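#lab-general

N.A. 3:47 PM
ok so I finally got the sequence cleaned up, no stray characters, all 59 residues accounted for. can someone with queue access submit it? mine expired

B.Y. 3:52 PM
send it over

N.A. 3:53 PM
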Amino acid sequence: MTQGLSERDICTKFILPALEKAGWDRQSQLFEEYRLRVGRVVVRGNKGKRDQSSIRRAD
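B.Y. 4:20 PM
back already:
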């Protein structure tokens, strides 16, 4: 039944409807791709930049 579906497809078709049915509010309680950490800062000379590979997100 879920064979061939992506993680996003499974979430949209099964998980989100189940959470909403259980009473969760999609606007205030559910966050997608929520950042856990903004990433480390790499400094080169006088400039600093976030290292995109060190950003951590929760699914």
